[in-house]
Amino acid sequence: MNKKNIASFAFVLLFALPLGAQSIKINADWEFQRLKKEQQLTEIKNQGSDWSSQFNIQHVEAQNQALAVHPDTLELELNQLSMGKWEQVNLPHTPFVEPLVVLHQWQGICYYRKQLNISRKEIDKQLWLEFEGAMHLADVWVNGQHLTQHSGGYTPFVADVTGMLHADRANEILVRLDNRNNLLIPPGKPLETLDFCYYGGLYRDVNLIVKQPVHITHPIMADEVAGGGVFVTYPRVSEQEAEVKVKTQVSNKTGIQKHLTIRHTLYEWSKKKGGCGKKVASVESPLVLAAGTTLHHTQQFAVNNPKLWYPDSPALYVLRTEVMDGREVTDCENTRIGIRRIEMTREKGFVINGKPLILEGSNRHQEYPYVGNAISDQAQYRDMYQIRNNGFNTVRLGHYPQDPSVLEACDELGLLVIEPIPGWQFFNKAQGFINHTYKDIRDLIRRDRNHPSIIMWETTLNESWPPKNWKNQAVQTAHEEFPGDQCYTSGDTYGYDGFDVCYNDWEEGYNRPNTTRKPGFIREYYDYEFGGHYSTTRVTRGDGDHAMTQNTWNAQWSHNRYRAYYPWTIGGAVWSMYDYNRGCCDNICYSGLADVFRLPKFGLLYFRTQVKKGSFTPAGPMAYEVFINSHWLEDSSDTLQVYGNVDEVQLLLNGRVVARQRPDNKPSTAKYVSRPDGGNAVNIDFPPFTFFNVKWEQGELKAIGYKDGKAVAEHVVRTPGAVEAMDITYFESGVPASCCDLLIVYVNLKDLHGTDCFGENNREVRLEVLQGGEVRGPATIKAEAGVASFLVATADSQTLVLKAVSGNLEASRKLKLQK
Questions:
Q1: Are the beta carbons of 197 and 233 closer than 8 angstroms?
Q2: Whole-model pTM?
């Protein structure tokens, strides 16, 4: 049996699983062709250093145009496909592997096809194809019949293929994707002037959903306001009792009336037990459903002494919803939920389950090097884990809905989410574009409304200044989709106060006013205000310690300044967590607290040490920690900062005490101070320890942290020698390497004593995958700051063997991959 037959055989076996296992990923064994298209390259014009240069807002009126593919165009493309060669691929997939610095992202037409086999047992059931993300104009054919067109690469769509498939032969799915600029599809702005890349391809999962004729509907396909599928809300929440309200839409596709029972059973969620742990509560009630009809059915039940979902204790439940026709379960869906209640006001700030909480946030683009947005669920989880593990309780998903696995990870990790619709500095007055934006709001909420992690729906087009009537309708649309007092919309203000949370305005300098009567949030800080396109925040690890110290100081100075706005400003989010590529400039945006390969800069460690000892982190309760912002090279600054959640720090150089001191306590400054000054820390929880006039000498620098006079933590840096060795690690971040995964692999250059050679920026390193995967992007690169970073796609194999070569040095590593 060849590989393709094995895949088909396994697929049929999956169909034989008990009811409830009805959504099957069909990511394997696709075929792909990228058509050769002329791509007009537009000159890239960088932004400037002045404040206003960040704004390149375009308001246009591009009249409605047909999105349908012209028959002559389609015929020409199909002829090209017949003469071309199909490439075997698995999803998620990018149509073009980009260079590290993306100057002109590939745009054009590509096709995917798949041969799908199903059993006779399933042929008469309800069969749906669910596309989680296809960039960004998608046409789908099944067995030669055009099924649907969907516009928008960040929201899902579902195609009903019931009655269209064969059991006696393979079924062909054909997908055409067009990711060229389109003024009618949000974000709408041409890529060459957009501040992020949207890449292309079937870059998220594709699922086949199998249902009985009597079934729970799909919230996207149902297209019902505040309905479709399963919708869970919590009218009343306390530590003593919570009320759970479940609205379920059930459809009867049979020709007879059905007397049904709808049963909900609540279980504690258990990762170790595969989902369902202890049974907590249950409720059932009858539903009479006439032939060919669809109805919503609402039930409520109480949970005594509930485990409430909170960032520091993200307790989850599984709600099992069953549709029963007599004793037969005709449909079953598991919905993972968290019981919680939120409130946001100018007087109290952000309150969750009665407890106030300052929102400490970061912004995150979902891209990876080389492959853009086509990354594995495990890789998505690793990003969220790293964000949560380094002092942040909030993430803003700038500037679009991200993969469903991101929300799943945030639910588990206790990471609060602000989720936007697609948009950036662009508004099209054409009705087609406007309608699309409202549909994005509806689809966003319908997809993600049951996630406890989401606290704000960003129902605006970022930095676009759309007209007031558009914003009014956007807010109204969100509240229609999510009725009650637990739907909080957010967006840019500039004189508009209709959002539930009004982002603070941007002004020249460092002021962030908010003149509305609503609570505020600073959606981005610590980057553009420090020099625009040439911001001193924008540094690489290879730029060295002085640059990274500047990056961190900018973070501390603005973090301290904006925390003074609490509680009327409920929090803020740094821009950004990771470096990222963009269409509008000729380089990577290096504003990240970590680089594009997820390697930390000093700023990330600053935020990590703002976490109190014993607080929740995904890795376990926070310990006492200290961190020196230096690699102790010859050109190191004589002003050093040590970050730590401790009372005192003692600094030792080659065993000699340099100083022992308490945290910085000088005043904060109204005007920006360009370098650490021993102040500007009065509003942060754990001020750093600034040491002045520390003269460099080769050797070891050690910081010892003290709490109540007792040594509780230390950090040591050593001046490295010449490169004498290498080792291979990878970005694990809470998830071990797995089959069908995407790994960032690091080859670390070290001296004879194992010290990282941070100053090494030019040594060439080659990575070979000897078994279990392949390198995506270049296999030979120059190290940056002592690390050569690669991207490796693992195969469906449980062993990965890596080998690194640099000159006369070699290193190897064998990894056992998890299934």
A1: no
A2: 0.96
